Protein backbone atom coordinates (compact mmCIF):
# COMPACT_ATOMS: atom_id res chain seq x y z
CA UNK A 1 0.00 0.00 0.00
CA UNK A 2 1.03 3.56 -0.64
CA UNK A 3 2.98 5.59 1.94
CA UNK A 4 0.74 8.63 2.38
CA UNK A 5 2.97 10.37 4.95
CA UNK A 6 5.05 12.55 2.55
CA UNK A 7 1.99 13.82 0.68
CA UNK A 8 0.00 14.70 3.80
CA UNK A 9 3.02 16.52 5.26
CA UNK A 10 3.17 18.58 2.08
CA UNK A 11 -0.57 19.25 2.26
CA UNK A 12 -0.32 20.54 5.85
CA UNK A 13 2.62 22.82 4.97
CA UNK A 14 0.71 24.27 2.02
CA UNK A 15 -2.42 24.79 4.12
CA UNK A 16 -0.44 26.69 6.76
CA UNK A 17 0.89 29.03 4.05
CA UNK A 18 -2.55 29.87 2.57
CA UNK A 19 -3.67 33.38 3.43
CA UNK A 20 -7.35 32.96 2.45
CA UNK A 21 -8.62 30.22 4.74
CA UNK A 22 -12.35 30.92 4.24
CA UNK A 23 -14.80 32.07 6.90
CA UNK A 24 -15.65 30.21 10.13
CA UNK A 25 -19.42 29.52 10.46
CA UNK A 26 -21.10 31.93 12.84
CA UNK A 27 -24.82 31.20 12.40
CA UNK A 28 -24.38 28.69 15.24
CA UNK A 29 -22.80 31.08 17.79
CA UNK A 30 -20.85 28.37 19.62
CA UNK A 31 -18.96 27.49 16.42
CA UNK A 32 -17.73 31.03 15.80
CA UNK A 33 -15.00 30.82 18.50
CA UNK A 34 -12.87 28.27 16.64
CA UNK A 35 -9.33 29.22 15.58
CA UNK A 36 -9.34 29.42 11.73
CA UNK A 37 -5.66 28.41 11.62
CA UNK A 38 -6.33 24.85 12.72
CA UNK A 39 -5.64 22.22 10.08
CA UNK A 40 -5.63 18.46 10.50
CA UNK A 41 -5.59 15.46 8.21
CA UNK A 42 -5.71 11.71 8.82
CA UNK A 43 -5.78 8.76 6.41
CA UNK A 44 -6.62 5.18 7.39
CA UNK A 45 -5.89 2.57 4.75
CA UNK A 46 -7.57 -0.79 4.26
CA UNK A 47 -4.79 -2.53 6.19
CA UNK A 48 -5.59 -0.39 9.22
CA UNK A 49 -2.43 1.73 8.80
CA UNK A 50 -2.92 5.33 9.91
CA UNK A 51 -1.16 8.43 8.50
CA UNK A 52 -1.69 11.76 10.27
CA UNK A 53 -0.43 15.35 10.25
CA UNK A 54 -1.29 18.74 11.73
CA UNK A 55 -4.17 18.99 14.24
CA UNK A 56 -5.43 15.48 13.44
CA UNK A 57 -6.05 14.63 17.08
CA UNK A 58 -8.11 17.71 17.99
CA UNK A 59 -11.87 17.32 18.24
CA UNK A 60 -14.31 19.59 16.39
CA UNK A 61 -18.06 19.68 15.79
CA UNK A 62 -18.81 17.16 13.03
CA UNK A 63 -22.15 18.85 12.19
CA UNK A 64 -23.59 17.56 8.89
CA UNK A 65 -21.08 14.71 8.69
CA UNK A 66 -23.38 13.09 11.28
CA UNK A 67 -26.10 12.87 8.61
CA UNK A 68 -24.31 9.92 7.02
CA UNK A 69 -24.22 8.13 10.38
CA UNK A 70 -27.89 8.67 11.18
CA UNK A 71 -28.73 7.54 7.63
CA UNK A 72 -26.60 4.45 8.12
CA UNK A 73 -28.29 3.51 11.39
CA UNK A 74 -31.83 4.16 10.06
CA UNK A 75 -31.13 2.27 6.81
CA UNK A 76 -29.77 -0.75 8.66
CA UNK A 77 -32.90 -0.74 10.86
CA UNK A 78 -35.74 -0.25 8.37
CA UNK A 79 -34.15 -1.08 4.99
CA UNK A 80 -35.61 0.04 1.68
CA UNK A 81 -38.80 1.44 3.33
CA UNK A 82 -36.64 4.45 4.12
CA UNK A 83 -36.94 5.69 0.52
CA UNK A 84 -40.70 6.20 0.91
CA UNK A 85 -39.89 9.09 3.24
CA UNK A 86 -36.85 10.69 1.58
CA UNK A 87 -35.46 10.85 -1.99
CA UNK A 88 -32.02 10.17 -3.46
CA UNK A 89 -31.52 13.06 -5.89
CA UNK A 90 -29.08 15.94 -5.41
CA UNK A 91 -30.93 19.12 -4.53
CA UNK A 92 -28.64 21.61 -6.28
CA UNK A 93 -29.56 23.93 -3.43
CA UNK A 94 -27.97 25.03 -0.14
CA UNK A 95 -28.23 22.62 2.80
CA UNK A 96 -31.00 24.59 4.54
CA UNK A 97 -33.15 25.37 1.50
CA UNK A 98 -36.93 25.28 1.96
CA UNK A 99 -38.84 25.91 -1.28
CA UNK A 100 -38.13 22.51 -2.88
CA UNK A 101 -39.54 20.89 0.22
CA UNK A 102 -42.83 22.68 -0.25
CA UNK A 103 -42.99 21.92 -3.98
CA UNK A 104 -42.25 18.25 -3.37
CA UNK A 105 -44.86 17.73 -0.64
CA UNK A 106 -42.58 17.38 2.35
CA UNK A 107 -40.43 14.58 0.88
CA UNK A 108 -36.86 15.89 1.17
CA UNK A 109 -34.68 15.45 -1.93
CA UNK A 110 -32.08 13.35 -0.09
CA UNK A 111 -30.99 12.34 3.45
CA UNK A 112 -27.89 14.59 3.49
CA UNK A 113 -29.61 17.98 3.36
CA UNK A 114 -31.04 19.30 6.62
CA UNK A 115 -34.66 18.44 5.75
CA UNK A 116 -33.67 14.87 4.87
CA UNK A 117 -31.69 14.42 8.07
CA UNK A 118 -34.68 15.71 10.04
CA UNK A 119 -36.86 12.94 8.53
CA UNK A 120 -34.11 10.37 9.29
CA UNK A 121 -34.03 11.65 12.89
CA UNK A 122 -37.80 11.06 13.09
CA UNK A 123 -37.35 7.47 11.83
CA UNK A 124 -34.66 6.79 14.45
CA UNK A 125 -36.77 8.25 17.25
CA UNK A 126 -39.68 5.98 16.24
CA UNK A 127 -37.45 2.91 16.17
CA UNK A 128 -35.11 3.38 19.17
CA UNK A 129 -35.82 2.99 22.89
CA UNK A 130 -33.51 5.76 24.03
CA UNK A 131 -32.73 7.59 20.75
CA UNK A 132 -29.92 9.99 21.73
CA UNK A 133 -28.11 7.43 23.85
CA UNK A 134 -28.63 4.56 21.36
CA UNK A 135 -27.37 6.65 18.44
CA UNK A 136 -24.25 7.71 20.34
CA UNK A 137 -23.58 4.09 21.30
CA UNK A 138 -23.90 3.10 17.62
CA UNK A 139 -21.25 5.67 16.62
CA UNK A 140 -19.00 4.74 19.57
CA UNK A 141 -19.37 1.08 18.64
CA UNK A 142 -18.27 1.59 15.03
CA UNK A 143 -15.18 3.48 16.18
CA UNK A 144 -14.63 1.19 19.17
CA UNK A 145 -14.24 4.42 21.12
CA UNK A 146 -16.58 5.12 24.07
CA UNK A 147 -15.07 8.60 24.53
CA UNK A 148 -17.03 10.02 21.54
CA UNK A 149 -19.71 12.36 22.89
CA UNK A 150 -22.23 15.08 22.19
CA UNK A 151 -21.25 18.70 22.77
CA UNK A 152 -24.20 19.94 24.81
CA UNK A 153 -23.13 23.58 24.43
CA UNK A 154 -23.17 23.33 20.63
CA UNK A 155 -26.52 21.49 20.62
CA UNK A 156 -28.01 24.18 22.89
CA UNK A 157 -26.51 26.99 20.81
CA UNK A 158 -28.04 25.58 17.64
CA UNK A 159 -31.42 25.04 19.29
CA UNK A 160 -31.52 28.77 20.08
CA UNK A 161 -30.72 29.84 16.51
CA UNK A 162 -31.98 26.94 14.37
CA UNK A 163 -34.95 28.84 12.94
CA UNK A 164 -34.64 27.43 9.42
CA UNK A 165 -34.56 23.89 10.79
CA UNK A 166 -37.74 24.64 12.76
CA UNK A 167 -39.30 25.98 9.54
CA UNK A 168 -38.27 22.84 7.63
CA UNK A 169 -39.50 20.50 10.36
CA UNK A 170 -42.92 22.21 10.62
CA UNK A 171 -43.27 22.14 6.83
CA UNK A 172 -42.46 18.41 6.77
CA UNK A 173 -44.88 17.86 9.67
CA UNK A 174 -47.62 19.72 7.79
CA UNK A 175 -47.26 17.21 4.93
CA UNK A 176 -47.52 14.29 7.37
CA UNK A 177 -43.91 13.14 6.96
CA UNK A 178 -42.95 13.41 10.67
CA UNK A 179 -44.39 10.93 13.20
CA UNK A 180 -42.95 12.61 16.30
CA UNK A 181 -43.32 16.17 17.51
CA UNK A 182 -41.03 18.84 16.10
CA UNK A 183 -39.26 19.61 19.43
CA UNK A 184 -38.34 15.96 19.99
CA UNK A 185 -37.12 15.49 16.42
CA UNK A 186 -35.01 18.66 16.42
CA UNK A 187 -33.56 17.94 19.85
CA UNK A 188 -32.26 14.66 18.41
CA UNK A 189 -31.12 16.32 15.16
CA UNK A 190 -29.21 19.13 16.95
CA UNK A 191 -27.53 16.59 19.24
CA UNK A 192 -26.45 14.37 16.35
CA UNK A 193 -24.89 17.41 14.62
CA UNK A 194 -23.10 18.40 17.84
CA UNK A 195 -21.04 15.19 18.09
CA UNK A 196 -17.33 15.99 18.55
CA UNK A 197 -14.67 13.99 16.80
CA UNK A 198 -11.10 14.40 15.61
CA UNK A 199 -9.91 13.47 12.10
CA UNK A 200 -8.41 10.33 13.67
CA UNK A 201 -11.79 9.31 15.10
CA UNK A 202 -13.70 10.20 11.92
CA UNK A 203 -11.67 7.90 9.67
CA UNK A 204 -12.29 5.03 12.09
CA UNK A 205 -16.05 5.59 11.88
CA UNK A 206 -16.14 6.05 8.11
CA UNK A 207 -13.97 2.94 7.69
CA UNK A 208 -17.25 0.94 7.45
CA UNK A 209 -18.20 2.75 4.21
CA UNK A 210 -14.73 2.08 2.78
CA UNK A 211 -14.59 -1.53 4.02
CA UNK A 212 -17.83 -3.10 2.76
CA UNK A 213 -19.82 -2.37 5.93
CA UNK A 214 -17.25 -3.83 8.35
CA UNK A 215 -15.47 -1.80 11.04
CA UNK A 216 -11.79 -2.09 12.05
CA UNK A 217 -12.80 -4.76 14.60
CA UNK A 218 -14.47 -6.63 11.73
CA UNK A 219 -18.00 -6.27 13.07
CA UNK A 220 -20.59 -5.85 10.32
CA UNK A 221 -22.82 -2.73 10.33
CA UNK A 222 -24.26 -2.63 6.79
CA UNK A 223 -24.97 -5.01 3.95
CA UNK A 224 -22.95 -4.52 0.78
CA UNK A 225 -25.87 -3.11 -1.30
CA UNK A 226 -26.52 -0.62 1.52
CA UNK A 227 -22.88 0.51 1.47
CA UNK A 228 -23.19 1.04 -2.29
CA UNK A 229 -26.26 3.21 -1.83
CA UNK A 230 -24.80 5.32 0.98
CA UNK A 231 -21.56 5.95 -0.94
CA UNK A 232 -23.58 6.89 -4.04
CA UNK A 233 -25.59 9.40 -2.02
CA UNK A 234 -22.40 10.86 -0.54
CA UNK A 235 -20.98 11.32 -4.04
CA UNK A 236 -24.08 12.98 -5.48
CA UNK A 237 -25.37 14.85 -2.40
CA UNK A 238 -22.58 15.11 0.20
CA UNK A 239 -21.64 18.70 -0.59
CA UNK A 240 -25.05 20.25 -1.34
CA UNK A 241 -24.87 22.66 -4.27
CA UNK A 242 -21.15 21.95 -4.53
CA UNK A 243 -21.45 18.16 -4.95
CA UNK A 244 -20.60 18.41 -8.65
CA UNK A 245 -17.54 20.53 -7.87
CA UNK A 246 -16.32 18.06 -5.21
CA UNK A 247 -16.74 15.11 -7.61
CA UNK A 248 -14.96 17.14 -10.31
CA UNK A 249 -12.05 18.28 -8.12
CA UNK A 250 -11.65 15.34 -5.74
CA UNK A 251 -13.49 12.38 -7.26
CA UNK A 252 -14.46 10.58 -4.03
CA UNK A 253 -17.71 10.03 -2.12
CA UNK A 254 -17.58 12.22 0.97
CA UNK A 255 -19.39 14.50 3.37
CA UNK A 256 -18.72 17.93 4.81
CA UNK A 257 -19.91 19.78 7.90
CA UNK A 258 -20.03 23.47 8.83
CA UNK A 259 -17.57 22.75 11.66
CA UNK A 260 -14.96 22.56 8.86
CA UNK A 261 -14.61 18.78 8.68
CA UNK A 262 -14.66 16.71 5.51
CA UNK A 263 -14.47 12.94 5.31
CA UNK A 264 -14.08 11.03 2.05
CA UNK A 265 -13.16 7.52 0.96
CA UNK A 266 -11.99 5.34 -1.88
CA UNK A 267 -13.82 2.00 -1.51
CA UNK A 268 -11.56 -0.88 -0.43
CA UNK A 269 -8.53 1.45 -0.36
CA UNK A 270 -8.50 4.33 2.14
CA UNK A 271 -10.57 6.73 4.15
CA UNK A 272 -9.46 10.35 4.74
CA UNK A 273 -10.61 13.16 7.04
CA UNK A 274 -9.56 16.81 6.97
CA UNK A 275 -10.37 19.66 9.33
CA UNK A 276 -9.99 23.34 8.55
CA UNK A 277 -12.69 25.54 10.12
CA UNK A 278 -12.85 28.26 7.41
CA UNK A 279 -15.67 27.65 4.90
CA UNK A 280 -16.20 28.72 1.31
CA UNK A 281 -19.42 30.40 0.13
CA UNK A 282 -21.22 27.05 -0.19
CA UNK A 283 -20.52 26.10 3.44
CA UNK A 284 -17.77 23.55 2.74
CA UNK A 285 -14.27 23.73 4.23
CA UNK A 286 -12.16 25.80 1.85
CA UNK A 287 -8.74 24.33 2.60
CA UNK A 288 -10.17 20.85 3.17
CA UNK A 289 -11.41 20.79 -0.42
CA UNK A 290 -8.05 22.05 -1.73
CA UNK A 291 -6.21 19.42 0.34
CA UNK A 292 -8.34 16.57 -0.97
CA UNK A 293 -7.99 17.77 -4.55
CA UNK A 294 -4.22 17.67 -4.11
CA UNK A 295 -4.33 14.25 -2.46
CA UNK A 296 -6.30 12.54 -5.23
CA UNK A 297 -4.58 14.38 -8.09
CA UNK A 298 -1.03 13.75 -6.81
CA UNK A 299 -1.62 10.09 -5.91
CA UNK A 300 -3.89 9.31 -8.89
CA UNK A 301 -6.27 7.63 -6.41
CA UNK A 302 -9.94 8.47 -6.98
CA UNK A 303 -13.01 6.50 -8.07
CA UNK A 304 -12.40 7.77 -11.58
O1 LIG B 1 -28.58 22.22 10.73
C1 LIG B 1 -27.56 22.88 10.55
O2 LIG B 1 -27.59 23.96 9.95
C2 LIG B 1 -26.24 22.36 11.09
N1 LIG B 1 -26.45 21.58 12.28
C3 LIG B 1 -25.54 21.47 10.10
C4 LIG B 1 -25.24 22.15 8.80
C5 LIG B 1 -24.06 21.62 8.08
O3 LIG B 1 -23.10 21.14 8.64
C6 LIG B 1 -24.09 21.82 6.65
N2 LIG B 1 -22.84 21.42 6.08
N3 LIG B 1 -22.05 21.80 5.37
SSE map:
Blueprint: H1 5-17, E1 23-24, E2 40-45, E3 50-54, E4 60-61, H2 66-78, H3 99-103, H4 114-127, H5 131-143, H6 152-161, H7 163-174, H8 182-194, E5 196-197, H9 199-210, H10 224-237, H11 243-249, E6 254-256, E7 261-266, E8 270-275, E9 278-279, H12 286-299
Antiparallel strand pairs: 1-9, 2-3, 2-8, 4-5, 6-7, 7-8
The protein binds 6-diazenyl-5-OXO-L-norleucine.
The residue fraction in helices comes out at: 40-55%
The radius of gyration over CA amounts to 18 Å
Cα end-to-end separation: 19 Å
**Which structural class fits the helix and strand makeup?**
alpha+beta
Spans of 5+ residues with little confidence (pLDDT < 50)? Answer: none
Mean pLDDT: 96
The 3D shape can be described as globular
Number of helices: 12
Q: How are the strands of the largest sheet arranged?
A: 3-2-8-7-6
The portion of residues forming beta strands comes to 5-15%
